[in-house]
Amino acid sequence: MNQKLQEYARLLVEVGINIQKGQRLIIACPVDHAPFARLCASIAYEKGCKEVIMNWSDDELTRKKYLMADDSVFDSVPEWLVRFYTDYSKEKAGFLHLVSTDPENLLGVDADRILRSHKSQGEALKEYREIRNKNINPWSIGALASEKWAKLVFPKLEPEKAVEALWEKIFMAVRVKGDGTAIEAWRAHSKKLRGRMKILNDYNFKSLHYKNGLGTDLIVELAHDHVWEAGGDTTADGQFYMPNMPTEEIFTANKRDGINGVVYASMPLCRDGNVIEGLRFEIKDGKIVKATADKGEGILKNAISVDEGASYFGEVALVPFDSPISNSKTLFYSTLYDENASCHFAFGRAYPTTVKGGIGMSKEQLKEAGLNDSITHVDFMVGTSDLSIVGLTHDGREVPVFVEGNFAF
Amino acid sequence: MNQKLQEYARLLVEVGINIQKGQRLIIACPVDHAPFARLCASIAYEKGCKEVIMNWSDDELTRKKYLMADDSVFDSVPEWLVRFYTDYSKEKAGFLHLVSTDPENLLGVDADRILRSHKSQGEALKEYREIRNKNINPWSIGALASEKWAKLVFPKLEPEKAVEALWEKIFMAVRVKGDGTAIEAWRAHSKKLRGRMKILNDYNFKSLHYKNGLGTDLIVELAHDHVWEAGGDTTADGQFYMPNMPTEEIFTANKRDGINGVVYASMPLCRDGNVIEGLRFEIKDGKIVKATADKGEGILKNAISVDEGASYFGEVALVPFDSPISNSKTLFYSTLYDENASCHFAFGRAYPTTVKGGIGMSKEQLKEAGLNDSITHVDFMVGTSDLSIVGLTHDGREVPVFVEGNFAF
Fold first, then answer.
1. C-alpha closest to that of B69 among A120, A41, A27, A64
2. B379: alpha, beta or left, given left = phi > 0 and alpha = psi -120 to 50?
3. Confidence grade of residue A275 (pLDDT, cut at 50, 70, 90)
4. pLDDT digits 0-9 by tens, A313-357
5. CB B375 within 8 A of CB B122
6. Do A405 and A386 contact (CB within 8 A), yes or no?
7. Residues of chain A neighbouring B37 (CB-CB closer than 8 A)
8. Model pTM?
9. Do residues B354 and B229 lie in contact, with contact meaning Cβ atoms separated by under 8 Å?
10. Using CB atoms within 10 A as the burial measure, which of A12, A78, A243, B327 is most buried?
């Protein structure tokens, strides 16, 4: 176990962030996972990291705040927090996010408080977001098994066994065996993803047509100069990093107003500590004109109304139904894991990296290139075993992209 | 145990801070003690606290930073940290400091890095210190038992037993029995301290003459308009609070240049994670002209040279040799506890509250009133069972203040 934790920490710092000599590393971590953060810090310092800065969090205190704090605190963000994110992003620090949030942590909390909190953060951190869009900060997300999360994933196991089982799933997904081969395995995996990414970029599809037995029937135009990305990203200064650990997706940007039809989520969506089930969107010229859910509909409606861009899509991602996380047949209640088990979309902000020359572009230029903007970005899963996706090229050819849930090539 | 922890948390929040409706509470806490911080947060919210803000720390990461970070980071303080302290102090927030630092945490660390770190913090947080000097923020310090600290205090016990024993010592010192009587007991204790404080204020001594068998022979002039304080303080807005839990001391300000003679520490001094033993100062016209120690002399010399004021005294405190913490015959390696077991002085900054009208005074006026200024304030213990202190009044009367280590009245 200790060997595996050590190897996982090394993977996150050396491959996820690829920390450079003289670079600061900001580690966001729940207080209950301090020992793992200490492992990451030691490895970062060994690689010449300038300084490790901790950004601690605590689920219980977050929940208490939403339930008991004065109502006014959800409408503003303190200046120190703005400076924290803005200044470290400006100086090209790395951002490692260690997450183990109980997906149901905010259950029962006033949805309006959550919405206002997101809105005020979105506004206060505008400059920070603009810097992050320049892709000068390597970043990565890695999950840590916690008791509450494990209980949700393995409700029939004893707490201790559930945590163990969840750690094993995590190690499997990030290819950590405890024998020192994880970094090599990740490089091979990244290479394979980037091979398929190249094929998709060569096709340069005009649109994708999604269909499955759930009822999804959706035509998704891609941004004109879209670029498919996968298996890692490179900062403007040439630092290669791995934004998500694990990652199985190949993703790009849709054309903001180019989506029409109906789409059903194939898995629950965890948002703000609430679980949304049976999500269904009707979309016309890119805009979500009808949003329903069997459970958590209020949370869903809030999520797509934080600003105008929240009701448009910003990301199209392809993941084979037959892939490691998907094959584990486990619902993780965690976007980081579940999005890598399934084809998905995101409503909200598009990634500037998913359009040619997007990194140097102004907000207006990105908009002209067809990309959506928003303070939010929320993934939801649509992949099923019977999903078919047909690509349409600019010269009118129809090309099967997904057949029965998996890549056709 | 849970009952006692709950009662201790309540004591710190309701008596230590005396949190008011609509007031923010900043809790500084080591990450390993998150459960106790959560208890404090719940109690604060129940009393109408506007928002609890956590200021987490971690001994191990602090040590790693001092050992492994880039040398440049010790010469600057990030703007976000300055804003954090300055903005919350401005808005009259309460500051609760939960401490469990391993006193030997920084053993072997480059003393120059520690010195530069203190200096740059001292300079960057100048505005914060000025606000704090206005006494608009209720604050309190409470200790939490940790394994490393407990091992130092009880080296012969098994780790788990040592932690238990340390908790029991803490509960004893803060008068927590787990039966709900702690708050009442504290109010009675505070009243008793304030009775003696009144006697000392009525005498209005010109100077105190310290003598004991260790070799201490020191004449300490008090600031002309000095005020003795004890058992709690009141903010400028009238919020009564208890700066230290426990507190047994009655303290005031010496005249900056009015100390002459020799003084020996009677207990080790823990500073920057190092233990200084056998401390001895020779003082002429207030200035420490010679500083020696049997162990940690380098750390001591650094501590008194962070700025000019660091080599002058700023506090004179009286604690009977026969008092609860002293009687426990335990060396806590913690200033919070050890200072309340023994008469002590501090080198560095004086408290503006310890001179008449000091709160409203400018830096220059405080200096004129005879008070020392510095970015630092370090207590060291001088009480012994044979300590005698003789007070000299302005009309030339000699009054015994301490006889054989205890108050003469």
1. A41
2. beta
3. confident
4. 999 999 999 888 988 888 888 888 888 989 999 999 999 989 999
5. yes
6. yes
7. 58, 61
8. 0.85
9. yes
10. A12
Reported as a single tens digit per residue, the pLDDT across A198-256 is 999 999 999 999 999 999 999 999 999 999 999 999 999 999 999 989 999 999 999 99
DSSP string of B91-148, one letter each residue: TT-EEEEEE---TTTTTTS-HHHHHHHHHHHHHHTHHHHHHHHTT-S-EEEEE---HH
Looking at chain B from residue 220 to 239, which residues have their Cβ under 8 Å from any Cβ of chain A?
A: none
> Which own/partner contact pairs does B284-289 have at CB distance under 8 Å and 24+ positions apart?
B284/B260, B285/B257, B285/B258, B285/B259, B285/B260, B286/B254, B286/B255, B286/B256, B286/B257, B286/B258, B286/B259, B286/B312, B286/B313, B286/B372, B287/B257, B287/B311, B287/B312, B288/B312, B288/B347
* pLDDT score of B323 more than 90: no
Query: Any bridge partners for residue A141, and if so which?
Result: A97, A244
A138 by DSSP, 3-state: which? Answer: coil
Q: Residue A83 and residue B79: Cβ atoms within 8 Å?
A: yes
Geometric angle at alpha carbon A229, from A227 and A231, rounded to 5°:
165
Residues constituting chain B: 409
Kindly give the interhelix angle for A34-46 and A2-11, rounded to the nearest 10 degrees.
50
When pLDDT is cut at 50, 70 and 90, the band that residue B13 belongs to is very high
Q: How many CA atoms lie within 13 A of B272 on its CB side?
A: 25
Q: What does the radius of gyration of chain B's CA atoms come to, in whole angstroms?
A: 20
Q: Rounded to 5 degrees, what are φ and ψ at B18? A: 60, 55
Whether B241 has a pLDDT exceeding 80, the answer reads yes
B80 and chain A in contact, CB less than 8 A:
yes
| Residue B202 at interface with chain A, using a CB cutoff of 8 Å | no
Backbone angles phi, psi at B17, to 5 degrees: -95, -35
Which tokens go with B263?
């003084």
Q: Residues near A297 by Cβ (< 8 Å), separated by ≥ 6?
A: A276, A291
Query: Using CA atoms, how far apart are residues A88 and A85, in angstroms rounded to an integer?
Result: 6
Out of B34, B64, B87, closest to residue A79 by CB: B87
DSSP-assigned letters across all residues of B145-170: --HHHHHHH-TTS-HHHHHHHHHHHH
| pLDDT at position A101 over 80 | no
* DSSP strand pairing (A229-230 vs A250-252): antiparallel
Neighbours of B357 (CB within 10 A): 11
Q: Tell me which residue has tokens 């070799």.
A: B215
pLDDT tops 90 at residue B271: no
Does A69 lie at the interface with B, CB-CB under 8 angstroms? Answer: yes
A126's CB contacts (< 8 A; 6+ apart) are: none
User: How far is Cα A97 from Cα A12, in angstroms, rounded to an integer?
Assistant: 10
